[in-house]
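Late entry, evening session. Most of the bench is empty. Finally got around to the prediction I had been postponing all week. Sequence below, unchanged from the version circulated by S.P.
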Amino acid sequence: MHEMSLCEGIVQVLQQEAERQSFHKVNRVRLEIGALAGVELSALRFGFDVVSRGTLAEGAALEIIEQPATAWCLMCMRPVTIQQRYDPCPECGAYQLQVTEGEELKIKDLEVE
């Protein structure tokens, strides 16, 4: 369950930003997670609740914005939306796709005190 280590990284970033920007509590965290990021969202929510205990993020609301995956089809020569890796192009059925978005996991913004 790598979601726990992801949550530890998120809390570590929050603590670093708290020192840098002089805030002491996080009320809300919004994350953008791509469809190909390989993250189990329920495990991430559980992990965040566990890992944030006793930190400046304890009790913070965790909002997740799911981002679709897109790829560049080398046959169609245009971007297409895909559901998972190794899907064929939804337009032409070719498998020559280069993923362009959907692998990211990033902190979009915070609400702090």
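Two things to note before I forget:
The mean pLDDT is 96.
Residues 3-21 form the longest helix (19 residues).
Will write this up properly tomorrow.
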